[in-house]
Design a protein that fits this description.
InterPro entries: KH_dom-like_a/b (IPR015946), OsmC/Ohr_fam (IPR003718), OsmC/Ohrsf (IPR036102). This protein has four helices and two strands. It has 107 residues and is α+β, with helices and mostly antiparallel strands. The chain has a two-stranded antiparallel ribbon. 7% of the residues are buried.
Length: 107
């Protein structure tokens, strides 16, 4: 799996979870939801194009979900150009820790 695939998976999962939670809270009869993400490169510009396929809802409800999809936590982080700062940690690690990816989210 390529790095951009993981990024798209994160965005897709966040979108699907957010929209399913919203429809459940509203009591809407969502039959199915498919989130497809396309990563496009045109010249030097990179773009992510989400495509939603929603079944079981009326056009107004679908439009509301499309609006919400524009404001999921991962969508907003990507759109804001979230700053990324790499730092070095000079502490020693043991063999067990060498073999795993460490993800940390601090509040």
């Amino acid at each position: 799996m390529a790095p951009y695939d993981l990024l798209l998976a994160s965005l897709g999962a966040c979108t699907a979870i957010t929209l399913k939670m919203y429809t459940a809270r509203k009591g809407w009869p969502l039959a199915s939801l498919d989130v497809e993400l396309r990563f496009n490169v045109v010249g030097e510009e990179k773009m992510i194009e989400p495509v939603l396929r929603i079944h079981g809802l009326d056009d107004e409800q679908k439009a509301r979900l499309a609006d919400i999809a524009e404001r999921t936590p991962v969508t907003l982080a990507l759109k804001s150009g979230l700053p990324i700062t790499t730092r070095l940690d000079h502490s020693k690690i043991d063999d067990h820790e060498r073999s795993r990816l460490r993800l940390r989210h601090d509040n």
